[in-house]
Amino acid sequence: MKQEYRKKTSWGALLAVLVFLAVVLWLDQIIKPTNKMYMLLTVLQKGSVYALAAVSMNLLNGYTGLFSLGHAGFMLIGAYTYAIFTIPSSARDAVYQYFDAAVRFSFPEALSGVMGPAGTAVGVLIAVILAGLMAAFFAWLIGLPVLRLKSDYLAIATLGFAEIIRAIFQWQKLGPITNGSNLLKNFARTSKFKLELGDTKLVLSTFVPVLIATISIIIIVKLVNSTYGRAFKAIRDDEIAAEAMGINLAKHKMLSFTVSSFFAGVSGAMMAMVLSIAQASNFKSAMTYEILLMVVLGGIGSTSGSVIGSFLFVAASEWWLRGLDSGSFLGISAPGIFRNGFRLVVFSIIIMIVVLFFRKGIMGEREISDVLRSRKKKAGGTAK
Amino acid sequence: MAKTILPYIISGISVGGQYALIAIGYTMVYGILRLINFAHGDVFMVAGLMMVYMAASMPLYIAIPLMIVLTVLLGFLIERVAYRPLRTAPRMSVMISAIGVSYLIQNLALYITGGLNKNYPTIPWISDRVTVFGMETSRVTIITPFLTIILVVLLVQLINHTKIGMAMRAVSLNFETSQLMGIRINNVISATFIIGTFLAAVGSMLFFTNYPGVVPTSGAMPGLKAFVAAVFGGIGSIPGAVIGAFIIGIAESLIKGLDTILIVQGTISEQIGFATFSDAFTFILLIIVLVFKPTGLFGEKTTDKV
């Protein structure tokens, strides 16, 4: 009985995801950049980047109980790996203005030569996966010493690690690879993603990031619901008890750390393709803090919470509260107070209220499916 | 050789003294609450900004004490509003609250300043140029280490020989037992925050005099470095934090000048760009310390810390 119910919900969830993707694809076609509603697409693009970043951070902070603040560093690795390997050779010299570019290889270009137009898509995909793998590799490297640390020491060590990474990527001696402290541009970016089938042209600018984020989040959900996920939660709740139950602490912590960093790297690659630039100085610890606040907003330990939290965060800061910056908001016009930056002030006050008074966030530790299920149960109960 | 290195060492000692003043705030709060007060660096930045705005509208002999009083008030309020309600909550929640406060303060500063660099006022006498050992520097560089040491000695006296100091030691040793002994924990914690922010306010005056201006993110990096200094010296230990801060200040300053030093010495012939790593070095040091000696140089040996 229970098994059957589970099956039903998973089919329902799959259907919901497919409908959502179809709607996004449709919106991508009908909303043109000049349209006022284009903000919706921007929110969907940036939101999916942050949603994946938040979900991957939640895997570590919420499910495994490892308080890590190194996310911006892993995203930086991902963004740079993606950018470096997708700059077409014709644009290389313009991007590496002051250096002699060392990497002269671009996956989309190389593969489109072999496989035709489909090669571009495969090339982008390979670059995204490579971005994740690079981030995971660095996570493994740093995880060896720092995962032995606990709570706030781990937090400050990973935060420091992100700063070290940022310094390395800005080092002028690595300029031929990373372009020093200058930005990387002209690589494969979402604004150029299109599918041409004969006469019909499909715009994929929003669809691609949303699709990558969706697939990645589904993989993370599968991991959380597997035996590994249960082991993570056991470690979070009580390390000593978990060890006594036969869970290999070092192995599971490392697994959680590298998987989380892999998806942080993927989200970094997505951020590069959405913003169409990659610059190390953008990946400051403030970015990690923002992602952490999204996780808190949605509820630590809830994947759907992180997704909701990050979309709300992006929508509020990019779209809904924009009026607070430009003079009038909800019909109130006060250019003296509503000037640049006010939106972020209001926004951070809201976040402080959530942190202080609604510590569980929007979802607590529940998922959307739990909420729906309990509602169904209630409805069933009253019918009896 | 000595002539090339000396200026870097002197400026390093000065920066170290400034970090020390911030680091004490971290180490005292951590010693009592087991909390990394992420907002401490931002309070330091606010102290700088307040000075900028107040110096423009009133004479310095009013502006400086008023700035210190207001900064202390801010530190006190942050503890009251953002940390006290979470006293029984898990440590992670308090840390998130601290990050939230830091985010709020930075955004508020961004709103008020419009993100522009605010020029720090020239404080007469301490910004004057003086010549020491044949090198020219501002007087603040020379004063900082001495002032730091005087303040630290006073603080250690306060902690070792007064009633409130004894209460602080008791609370940092064991939170609950000291509560049972009749110590008003909240007062002790408030006093800790007041002392910490007072030192940060003094430190900000010394720090920003040497820099062109204050921006909303000016506090983040010195704050993190001061925290690393506190960890390096053994968190909870005041002399440890001060020594850690001096070491980090000197090392950072030497790395900033490493290119020049090596070129003068003839080891390398062109710039390598070590200066990029002046911030990162602090964190490399942090990771090394955490891995090999988690209790720091002077930290007490307790098992529940790391």
SSE topology:
The complex is a heterodimer of chains A (384) and B (306).
Chain A: H1 2-30, H2 38-63, H3 71-84, H4 89-95, H5 107-115, H6 117-146, H7 151-170, H8 175-178, E1 194-197, E2 200-203, H9 207-224, H10 227-237, H11 239-244, H12 249-275, H13 285-298, H14 303-318, E3 328-329, E4 332-333, H15 342-357, H16 368-383
Antiparallel strand pairs in A: 1-2, 3-4
Chain B: H1 2-33, H2 40-57, H3 60-83, H4 91-113, E1 118-119, E2 129-132, E3 135-138, H5 139-161, H6 163-173, H7 175-180, H8 185-209, E4 213-214, H9 220-233, H10 238-256, H11 258-265, H12 278-292
Antiparallel strand pairs in B: 1-4, 2-3
Helix pairs in contact in B: 1-5, 1-8, 1-9, 1-10, 2-3, 2-4, 2-8, 2-9, 3-8, 5-6, 6-8, 9-10, 9-12, 10-12
Structure description:
The complex is a heterodimer of chains A (384) and B (306). Chain A is mainly alpha-helical. Chain A has a domain of 244 residues. Helix content of chain A is 68%, strand content 3%. Chain A has 16 helices and four strands. In chain A, strands 1-2 form a two-stranded antiparallel ribbon. Chain A has a two-stranded antiparallel sheet with strand order 3-4. Chain B has a two-stranded antiparallel sheet with strand order 1-4. In chain B, strands 2-3 form a two-stranded antiparallel ribbon. Chain B contains twelve helices and four strands, in the order ααααβββααααβαααα. Helix content of chain B is 71%, strand content 4%. The N and C termini of chain B lie far apart (42 Å). Classes of the chains: A mainly alpha (384), B mainly alpha (306). Chains A and B meet through helix 7, helix 13 and helix 15 of A and helix 4, helix 9 and helix 12 of B.
Keywords:
heterodimer; A: 384 residues; mainly alpha; two-stranded antiparallel ribbon; 16 helices; 4 strands; 68% helix; globular; B: 306 residues; ABC transporter involved in vitamin B12 uptake, BtuC; two-stranded antiparallel sheet; 12 helices; 4% strand
